[in-house]
Q: What sequence folds into this?
């Protein structure tokens, strides 16, 4: 069944919000997983049965967009519900970062904790690991995981499991780094044993749920996975293909969570959300997934090469899988084409968990359509990596580019770099999902350019006239990521 606009279960939900107990929330976010890497989106895939089952139990959104196309800004946008231009987080934080998500910003965990939730994060944080920016200082009661990406610390290149032969960022100059595993504020293992990490993640997740039950508290469990970010790792070889075996382990982890909820009769009072932080990292070659059919073909032809996935504003950089399951509230097997984003998750949880968002700042999302029906034509602004401008806009079925740029592809080809477009390129995504041929001037609907210019001005005015967290990445040592041009993990040198 394809959803659009108001539905019967919208009425069911709205009528029951104020009287029913606050639901438990499990938010699972994969790392670098492409739109086409899971069975619900790709009929050629048969190795993600648990994610497919989750989709069959709820609603799958085919037009969902992450908050950014790179790790840290995406996570900041998800947890705050605000654009990076508002939070100041437009870079990744490096291993030597002194700061993190500005302390003037509130997280999803802050809000949920304020209304009685037990809050936990199990997985990759990447929003600051010094004391003030640590998860336990940002609304979480419990933390078990890595402070940043699993390639931010080198591994044995000769190992058949840690297959990172095409990873250009694992150089001799940073081989002394090793990944720390945190439990709360303590580093309990360094370097972390990645082979057993997923099994330990699952164990800690189930323990957290059990403890919440014992304490008779609703729980918010945020699971930002390490899979499928390179280096790929897994405990058991299933197919001989490193990427597929990593996806299989990720899917099995999801299955353990779903089964545990069912065994403990928590399904009907638990919302489970599955998504990804951004699209696949194309320059990792056979160790990366696919954004198919959102391939950004114009970049590869007219733009003369480079990647149109992670780290770009092409669809493949930020259109990712998104599934929401809530048995008894969301009917099974729904498919929605509504235009939605990571910014929508926070206002959705505010509606269903009965907490208020502060009125001293602007939020960039709206409740998901199963709570409040969306207008037929919606606007999304796709933030650029490392830039304060908004060069890409989505308006209904149209994607408008005022500037385009690639990342490196598998052959390490950057192609034609940053290009300005006047008039802006316009793609009709309903008829050209691969973004191969922009509309001619005659094909662009009358008034569209004027409409988008007006929306851009309104957004720019909103950003610069409302509350913003300011971050000076170059000079403010309290919040700056490292800026060492000899270390490729520094945000000022290269963005991951």
A:
């Amino acid at each position: 069944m394809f959803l659009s606009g108001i539905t019967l279960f919208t009425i069911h939900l709205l009528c029951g919000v104020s009287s029913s107990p606050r639901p438990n929330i499990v938010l699972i976010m994969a790392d670098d997983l492409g739109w086409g890497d899971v069975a619900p989106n790709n009929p050629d895939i048969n190795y993600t049965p648990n994610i497919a089952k989750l989709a069959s139990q709820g609603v799958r959104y085919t037009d969902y967009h992450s908050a950014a196309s790179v790790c840290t800004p995406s996570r900041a946008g998800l947890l705050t519900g605000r654009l990076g231009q508002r939070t100041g987080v437009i870079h990744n934080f490096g291993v030597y970062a002194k700061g993190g998500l500005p302390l003037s910003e509130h997280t999803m965990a802050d809000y949920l904790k304020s209304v009685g939730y037990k809050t936990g994060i199990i997985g990759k944080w990447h929003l600051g690991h010094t004391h003030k920016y640590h998860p336990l200082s940002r609304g979480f009661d419990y933390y078990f995981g890595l402070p940043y990406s699993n390639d931010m610390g080198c591994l044995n290149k000769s190992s058949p499991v840690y297959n990172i032969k095409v990873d250009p960022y694992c150089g001799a100059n940073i081989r002394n780094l090793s990944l720390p595993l945190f439990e709360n504020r303590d580093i309990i293992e360094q370097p972390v044993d990645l082979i057993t990490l997923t099994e330990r993640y699952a164990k800690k997740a189930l323990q957290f749920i059990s403890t919440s039950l014992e304490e008779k508290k609703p729980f918010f469990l945020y699971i930002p996975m390490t899979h499928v970010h390179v280096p790929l790792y897994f405990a058991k070889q299933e197919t001989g293909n490193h990427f597929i075996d990593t996806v299989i382990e990720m899917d099995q982890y999801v299955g353990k969570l779903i089964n545990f909820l069912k065994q403990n009769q928590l399904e009907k009072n638990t919302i489970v959300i599955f998504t990804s932080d951004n699209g696949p990292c194309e320059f990792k070659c056979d160790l990366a997934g696919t954004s198919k059919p959102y391939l950004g073909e114009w970049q590869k032809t007219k733009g003369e090469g480079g990647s149109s996935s992670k780290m770009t504003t092409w669809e493949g950089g930020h259109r990712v899988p998104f599934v929401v399951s809530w048995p008894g509230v969301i009917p099974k097997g729904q498919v929605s084409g509504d235009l939605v984003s990571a910014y929508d998750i926070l206002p959705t949880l505010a509606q269903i968990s009965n907490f208020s968002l502060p009125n001293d700042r602007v939020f960039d999302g709206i409740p998901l359509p199963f709570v409040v029906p969306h207008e037929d034509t919606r606007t999304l602004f796709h933030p650029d990596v490392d830039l304060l401008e908004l060069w890409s806009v989505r308006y209904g079925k149209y994607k408008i580019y005022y500037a385009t740029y690639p990342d490196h592809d598998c052959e390490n080809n950057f192609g034609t770099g940053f290009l300005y477009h006047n008039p802006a390129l316009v793609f009709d995504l309903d008829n050209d999902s691969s973004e191969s041929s922009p509309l001619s001037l005659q094909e662009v609907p009358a008034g569209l350019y004027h409409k988008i210019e007006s929306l851009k001005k309104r957004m720019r005015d909103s950003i610069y006239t409302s509350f913003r967290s300011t971050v000076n990445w170059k000079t403010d040592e309290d919040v700056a990521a490292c800026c060492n041009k000899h270390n490729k993990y520094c945000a000022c040198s290269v963005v991951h």
